[in-house]
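Suppose you are handed only two things: the residues of a chain and a line of SMILES describing adenosine-5'-triphosphate. What would the bound structure be? This form records exactly that question and the answer produced for it, so the two can be stored side by side and reused later without any lookup.

QUESTION INPUTS
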Amino acid sequence: MDSNEVMINIKSLSKSFGRIKALDDLNLEIKRGELLGIIGPNGAGKTTAIRMACCILKPDFGDIVVDGYSIHHDPIRIKSMIGYLPEEPNLYERFKAKDLLKYFAELYGVPKENIDGRIDELLELVGMTERSDDRINTFSKGLRQRISVARALVHDPEILIFDEPTMGLDPATANSIRNFIRTLKGQKTMILCTHYMEEADSLCDRVAILDKGRIMDVGTPEYLKSKIHGDVILKIKVQKQGDVDQFKSKIMQFESAGAVDFVDGEFLISLKYRNEISAIVDLFGNEVISVNTKEPTLEDVFIHTVT
Ligand SMILES: Nc1ncnc2c1ncn2[C@@H]1O[C@H](COP(=O)(O)OP(=O)(O)OP(=O)(O)O)[C@@H](O)[C@H]1O
Ligand SMILES: [Mg+2]
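ANSWER OUTPUT
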Protein backbone atom coordinates (compact mmCIF):
# COMPACT_ATOMS: atom_id res chain seq x y z
CA MET A 1 0.00 0.00 0.00
CA ASP A 2 1.30 3.51 -0.85
CA SER A 3 2.34 5.20 2.41
CA ASN A 4 0.19 8.26 1.57
CA GLU A 5 -2.81 6.03 1.37
CA VAL A 6 -2.27 4.57 4.84
CA MET A 7 -3.90 6.55 7.65
CA ILE A 8 -3.36 4.11 10.52
CA ASN A 9 -0.45 1.70 10.43
CA ILE A 10 -0.41 -0.91 13.20
CA LYS A 11 3.06 -2.41 13.36
CA SER A 12 4.05 -5.55 15.28
CA LEU A 13 1.81 -4.66 18.20
CA SER A 14 2.13 -6.91 21.25
CA LYS A 15 0.64 -6.65 24.72
CA SER A 16 0.38 -9.04 27.64
CA PHE A 17 -1.62 -8.71 30.83
CA GLY A 18 0.18 -11.08 33.17
CA ARG A 19 0.01 -14.50 31.54
CA ILE A 20 -2.64 -13.37 29.02
CA LYS A 21 -1.30 -12.42 25.62
CA ALA A 22 -3.90 -9.91 24.46
CA LEU A 23 -2.05 -8.90 21.27
CA ASP A 24 0.51 -11.04 19.55
CA ASP A 25 2.51 -9.26 16.84
CA LEU A 26 -0.50 -7.56 15.28
CA ASN A 27 -0.01 -5.88 11.90
CA LEU A 28 -2.74 -3.99 10.07
CA GLU A 29 -2.99 -1.02 7.72
CA ILE A 30 -6.07 1.17 7.48
CA LYS A 31 -6.41 3.35 4.41
CA ARG A 32 -7.36 7.00 4.38
CA GLY A 33 -11.14 7.25 4.05
CA GLU A 34 -11.64 3.55 4.64
CA LEU A 35 -14.17 1.94 7.02
CA LEU A 36 -12.44 -1.07 8.48
CA GLY A 37 -14.39 -3.56 10.57
CA ILE A 38 -12.78 -5.67 13.29
CA ILE A 39 -14.58 -8.84 14.28
CA GLY A 40 -13.45 -11.60 16.60
CA PRO A 41 -14.51 -13.57 19.67
CA ASN A 42 -14.66 -12.15 23.19
CA GLY A 43 -11.15 -11.54 24.47
CA ALA A 44 -9.61 -11.52 20.97
CA GLY A 45 -7.86 -8.19 21.63
CA LYS A 46 -10.09 -5.79 19.67
CA THR A 47 -10.60 -3.26 22.45
CA THR A 48 -6.96 -3.52 23.54
CA ALA A 49 -5.76 -2.67 20.02
CA ILE A 50 -8.05 0.31 19.59
CA ARG A 51 -7.28 1.67 23.05
CA MET A 52 -3.68 1.74 21.90
CA ALA A 53 -4.56 3.60 18.73
CA CYS A 54 -6.35 6.14 20.94
CA CYS A 55 -3.21 6.44 23.14
CA ILE A 56 -5.02 5.25 26.26
CA LEU A 57 -2.88 2.13 26.64
CA LYS A 58 0.74 1.48 25.71
CA PRO A 59 1.94 -1.63 23.90
CA ASP A 60 4.76 -3.82 25.22
CA PHE A 61 6.22 -3.87 21.71
CA GLY A 62 5.37 -2.32 18.38
CA ASP A 63 3.93 0.98 17.26
CA ILE A 64 0.89 2.57 15.68
CA VAL A 65 1.55 5.36 13.22
CA VAL A 66 -1.42 7.64 12.64
CA ASP A 67 -1.12 9.97 9.66
CA GLY A 68 2.66 9.84 10.08
CA TYR A 69 2.65 10.36 13.87
CA SER A 70 3.74 7.65 16.31
CA ILE A 71 1.75 6.82 19.45
CA HIS A 72 5.09 6.85 21.29
CA HIS A 73 6.06 10.37 20.25
CA ASP A 74 2.90 12.32 19.42
CA PRO A 75 0.03 11.01 21.57
CA ILE A 76 -1.53 14.44 22.08
CA ARG A 77 -1.60 15.12 18.37
CA ILE A 78 -3.08 11.69 17.66
CA LYS A 79 -5.76 12.10 20.33
CA SER A 80 -6.89 15.35 18.71
CA MET A 81 -7.34 13.53 15.39
CA ILE A 82 -9.48 10.70 16.76
CA GLY A 83 -13.08 10.53 17.91
CA TYR A 84 -13.49 7.45 20.08
CA LEU A 85 -16.67 5.72 21.16
CA PRO A 86 -15.56 3.38 23.94
CA GLU A 87 -17.10 0.01 24.69
CA GLU A 88 -18.45 1.39 27.97
CA PRO A 89 -18.71 5.14 27.64
CA ASN A 90 -18.04 6.95 30.88
CA LEU A 91 -20.20 10.05 30.83
CA TYR A 92 -20.39 12.72 33.49
CA GLU A 93 -23.70 11.76 35.03
CA ARG A 94 -24.71 15.10 36.50
CA PHE A 95 -24.10 17.10 33.33
CA LYS A 96 -26.94 18.09 31.05
CA ALA A 97 -26.51 16.60 27.57
CA LYS A 98 -25.63 19.89 25.91
CA ASP A 99 -23.27 20.93 28.73
CA LEU A 100 -21.41 17.65 28.39
CA LEU A 101 -20.91 18.27 24.68
CA LYS A 102 -19.86 21.86 25.41
CA TYR A 103 -17.33 20.64 27.97
CA PHE A 104 -15.73 18.27 25.44
CA ALA A 105 -15.86 20.85 22.65
CA GLU A 106 -13.87 23.26 24.84
CA LEU A 107 -11.49 20.49 25.92
CA TYR A 108 -10.74 19.67 22.28
CA GLY A 109 -10.27 23.30 21.36
CA VAL A 110 -13.28 23.81 19.10
CA PRO A 111 -13.31 27.60 18.36
CA LYS A 112 -15.69 29.32 20.80
CA GLU A 113 -17.83 30.87 18.08
CA ASN A 114 -18.50 27.46 16.55
CA ILE A 115 -19.39 25.53 19.70
CA ASP A 116 -23.11 26.27 20.00
CA GLY A 117 -23.78 25.61 16.33
CA ARG A 118 -21.78 22.40 16.40
CA ILE A 119 -23.67 21.13 19.46
CA ASP A 120 -27.07 21.89 17.94
CA GLU A 121 -26.03 20.09 14.77
CA LEU A 122 -24.85 17.01 16.67
CA LEU A 123 -27.91 16.83 18.92
CA GLU A 124 -30.07 16.95 15.83
CA LEU A 125 -27.97 14.27 14.16
CA VAL A 126 -28.38 11.79 17.03
CA GLY A 127 -32.03 12.71 17.57
CA MET A 128 -31.48 14.22 21.02
CA THR A 129 -32.47 17.86 20.49
CA GLU A 130 -35.48 17.54 22.77
CA ARG A 131 -33.41 16.00 25.55
CA SER A 132 -30.58 18.51 25.40
CA ASP A 133 -31.44 20.07 28.79
CA ASP A 134 -31.85 16.72 30.58
CA ARG A 135 -29.13 15.27 32.74
CA ILE A 136 -27.17 12.21 31.63
CA ASN A 137 -28.26 10.23 34.71
CA THR A 138 -31.86 10.36 33.49
CA PHE A 139 -30.99 8.68 30.16
CA SER A 140 -31.54 5.06 29.15
CA LYS A 141 -28.69 2.99 27.69
CA GLY A 142 -29.55 3.84 24.09
CA LEU A 143 -29.87 7.56 24.80
CA ARG A 144 -26.47 7.52 26.52
CA GLN A 145 -25.04 5.78 23.49
CA ARG A 146 -26.43 8.51 21.24
CA ILE A 147 -24.84 11.20 23.38
CA SER A 148 -21.57 9.24 23.36
CA VAL A 149 -21.64 9.19 19.56
CA ALA A 150 -22.16 12.96 19.56
CA ARG A 151 -19.31 13.36 22.04
CA ALA A 152 -16.96 11.36 19.81
CA LEU A 153 -17.78 13.69 16.92
CA VAL A 154 -17.69 17.01 18.72
CA HIS A 155 -14.27 18.14 17.41
CA ASP A 156 -15.03 16.87 13.89
CA PRO A 157 -12.14 14.40 13.95
CA GLU A 158 -10.63 12.92 10.82
CA ILE A 159 -10.67 9.46 12.34
CA LEU A 160 -13.54 7.74 14.14
CA ILE A 161 -13.20 4.60 16.18
CA PHE A 162 -16.36 2.87 17.35
CA ASP A 163 -16.16 -0.03 19.80
CA GLU A 164 -19.46 -1.92 19.50
CA PRO A 165 -21.57 1.19 18.84
CA THR A 166 -24.89 -0.65 18.51
CA MET A 167 -24.46 -3.14 21.35
CA GLY A 168 -27.65 -3.40 23.39
CA LEU A 169 -29.59 -0.86 21.35
CA ASP A 170 -33.11 -1.30 20.06
CA PRO A 171 -33.28 -2.11 16.33
CA ALA A 172 -34.40 1.38 15.30
CA THR A 173 -31.69 3.18 17.28
CA ALA A 174 -29.07 0.68 16.09
CA ASN A 175 -30.16 1.35 12.53
CA SER A 176 -30.00 5.08 12.91
CA ILE A 177 -26.42 4.78 14.21
CA ARG A 178 -25.52 2.48 11.30
CA ASN A 179 -27.08 4.88 8.81
CA PHE A 180 -25.17 7.70 10.37
CA ILE A 181 -21.87 5.78 10.07
CA ARG A 182 -22.80 5.11 6.44
CA THR A 183 -23.18 8.85 5.76
CA LEU A 184 -19.59 9.40 6.93
CA LYS A 185 -18.15 6.78 4.61
CA GLY A 186 -15.41 8.14 2.39
CA GLN A 187 -15.18 11.36 4.41
CA LYS A 188 -13.61 9.90 7.56
CA THR A 189 -11.26 7.06 8.28
CA MET A 190 -13.18 4.71 10.56
CA ILE A 191 -12.68 1.56 12.60
CA LEU A 192 -15.73 -0.37 13.73
CA CYS A 193 -15.52 -3.24 16.22
CA THR A 194 -18.65 -5.31 16.23
CA HIS A 195 -20.13 -8.69 17.06
CA TYR A 196 -22.91 -8.14 14.53
CA MET A 197 -21.79 -9.83 11.36
CA GLU A 198 -24.49 -8.23 9.21
CA GLU A 199 -23.40 -4.84 10.47
CA ALA A 200 -19.80 -5.54 9.46
CA ASP A 201 -20.89 -6.97 6.13
CA SER A 202 -23.20 -4.12 5.16
CA LEU A 203 -21.05 -1.22 6.37
CA CYS A 204 -17.38 -2.05 6.06
CA ASP A 205 -15.04 -1.68 3.11
CA ARG A 206 -12.79 -4.35 4.60
CA VAL A 207 -13.08 -6.59 7.63
CA ALA A 208 -10.26 -7.95 9.79
CA ILE A 209 -10.83 -11.14 11.75
CA LEU A 210 -8.94 -11.08 15.03
CA ASP A 211 -8.41 -14.12 17.24
CA LYS A 212 -6.06 -14.53 20.19
CA GLY A 213 -4.41 -11.22 19.45
CA ARG A 214 -3.60 -12.05 15.82
CA ILE A 215 -5.13 -11.22 12.46
CA MET A 216 -6.56 -14.41 11.01
CA ASP A 217 -7.68 -12.81 7.77
CA VAL A 218 -8.51 -9.43 6.30
CA GLY A 219 -10.32 -8.37 3.15
CA THR A 220 -13.57 -7.10 1.70
CA PRO A 221 -16.65 -8.95 2.98
CA GLU A 222 -17.06 -10.36 -0.53
CA TYR A 223 -13.48 -11.59 -0.60
CA LEU A 224 -13.78 -13.24 2.82
CA LYS A 225 -17.03 -14.93 1.86
CA SER A 226 -15.73 -16.12 -1.46
CA LYS A 227 -12.39 -17.30 -0.11
CA ILE A 228 -13.55 -20.10 2.11
CA HIS A 229 -17.01 -20.67 0.78
CA GLY A 230 -18.42 -21.42 -2.59
CA ASP A 231 -21.84 -20.64 -3.95
CA VAL A 232 -23.98 -22.19 -1.29
CA ILE A 233 -23.94 -23.31 2.35
CA LEU A 234 -25.61 -26.66 3.02
CA LYS A 235 -26.90 -26.99 6.58
CA ILE A 236 -27.62 -30.50 7.85
CA LYS A 237 -29.06 -30.83 11.34
CA VAL A 238 -28.51 -34.27 12.87
CA GLN A 239 -29.98 -36.13 15.85
CA LYS A 240 -26.76 -37.72 17.02
CA GLN A 241 -23.55 -36.11 15.91
CA GLY A 242 -21.49 -39.33 15.86
CA ASP A 243 -17.84 -38.95 14.99
CA VAL A 244 -17.73 -35.36 13.72
CA ASP A 245 -14.18 -35.58 12.37
CA GLN A 246 -14.97 -38.75 10.44
CA PHE A 247 -18.02 -37.10 8.86
CA LYS A 248 -15.98 -34.03 8.06
CA SER A 249 -13.35 -36.02 6.21
CA LYS A 250 -16.01 -37.99 4.31
CA ILE A 251 -17.69 -34.75 3.25
CA MET A 252 -14.39 -33.22 2.17
CA GLN A 253 -13.92 -36.11 -0.27
CA PHE A 254 -16.71 -34.65 -2.38
CA GLU A 255 -15.37 -32.43 -5.11
CA SER A 256 -17.89 -29.66 -4.46
CA ALA A 257 -17.04 -29.36 -0.74
CA GLY A 258 -14.96 -26.29 0.19
CA ALA A 259 -15.15 -26.35 4.00
CA VAL A 260 -17.07 -28.07 6.81
CA ASP A 261 -17.90 -26.78 10.28
CA PHE A 262 -20.01 -28.31 13.03
CA VAL A 263 -21.96 -25.89 15.24
CA ASP A 264 -24.90 -26.57 17.60
CA GLY A 265 -25.77 -30.00 16.21
CA GLU A 266 -25.54 -28.82 12.64
CA PHE A 267 -23.02 -29.45 9.87
CA LEU A 268 -22.33 -26.31 7.83
CA ILE A 269 -20.86 -27.31 4.49
CA SER A 270 -19.74 -24.82 1.88
CA LEU A 271 -20.24 -26.11 -1.63
CA LYS A 272 -18.87 -24.85 -4.90
CA TYR A 273 -21.85 -26.27 -6.74
CA ARG A 274 -25.10 -28.03 -5.87
CA ASN A 275 -25.17 -31.35 -7.70
CA GLU A 276 -23.71 -33.42 -4.85
CA ILE A 277 -26.13 -32.23 -2.16
CA SER A 278 -28.28 -35.36 -2.00
CA ALA A 279 -25.24 -37.66 -1.93
CA ILE A 280 -23.80 -35.67 0.99
CA VAL A 281 -27.12 -35.74 2.87
CA ASP A 282 -27.25 -39.54 2.36
CA LEU A 283 -24.05 -39.89 4.41
CA PHE A 284 -26.10 -39.17 7.54
CA GLY A 285 -28.90 -41.69 6.80
CA ASN A 286 -31.70 -41.58 9.38
CA GLU A 287 -29.90 -39.16 11.66
CA VAL A 288 -30.95 -36.17 9.52
CA ILE A 289 -33.47 -33.82 11.17
CA SER A 290 -33.44 -31.05 8.60
CA VAL A 291 -31.62 -29.90 5.48
CA ASN A 292 -31.34 -26.28 4.32
CA THR A 293 -29.28 -24.27 1.90
CA LYS A 294 -28.40 -20.60 2.11
CA GLU A 295 -26.07 -17.97 0.70
CA PRO A 296 -22.76 -17.68 2.55
CA THR A 297 -22.61 -14.89 5.15
CA LEU A 298 -19.85 -13.25 7.14
CA GLU A 299 -21.07 -15.27 10.11
CA ASP A 300 -20.07 -18.45 8.26
CA VAL A 301 -16.65 -16.96 7.66
CA PHE A 302 -16.36 -16.04 11.35
CA ILE A 303 -17.35 -19.51 12.51
CA HIS A 304 -14.99 -21.14 10.06
CA THR A 305 -12.07 -18.88 10.90
CA VAL A 306 -12.16 -18.69 14.68
CA THR A 307 -13.65 -21.98 15.85
N1 LIG B 1 -6.68 -4.14 31.90
C1 LIG B 1 -6.61 -5.46 31.73
N2 LIG B 1 -6.10 -6.26 32.68
C2 LIG B 1 -6.01 -7.60 32.49
N3 LIG B 1 -6.41 -8.24 31.38
C3 LIG B 1 -6.94 -7.50 30.41
C4 LIG B 1 -7.08 -6.07 30.53
N4 LIG B 1 -7.62 -5.60 29.37
C5 LIG B 1 -7.84 -6.67 28.58
N5 LIG B 1 -7.43 -7.80 29.20
C6 LIG B 1 -7.47 -9.16 28.63
O1 LIG B 1 -6.94 -9.10 27.32
C7 LIG B 1 -7.68 -9.92 26.43
C8 LIG B 1 -8.20 -9.08 25.28
O2 LIG B 1 -9.20 -8.22 25.78
P1 LIG B 1 -10.02 -7.20 24.87
O3 LIG B 1 -10.85 -6.35 25.78
O4 LIG B 1 -9.07 -6.50 23.99
O5 LIG B 1 -10.92 -8.18 24.01
P2 LIG B 1 -12.08 -7.87 22.95
O6 LIG B 1 -11.66 -8.51 21.68
O7 LIG B 1 -12.38 -6.42 22.94
O8 LIG B 1 -13.27 -8.71 23.56
P3 LIG B 1 -14.88 -8.39 23.64
O9 LIG B 1 -15.45 -8.85 22.33
O10 LIG B 1 -15.34 -9.24 24.77
O11 LIG B 1 -15.06 -6.91 23.88
C9 LIG B 1 -8.76 -10.58 27.28
O12 LIG B 1 -8.29 -11.85 27.69
C10 LIG B 1 -8.89 -9.64 28.46
O13 LIG B 1 -9.37 -10.33 29.60
MG1 LIG C 1 -14.00 -5.32 23.39
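WHAT STANDS OUT: The chain is about 35% helix and 30% strand. The longest strand covers residues 6-17.
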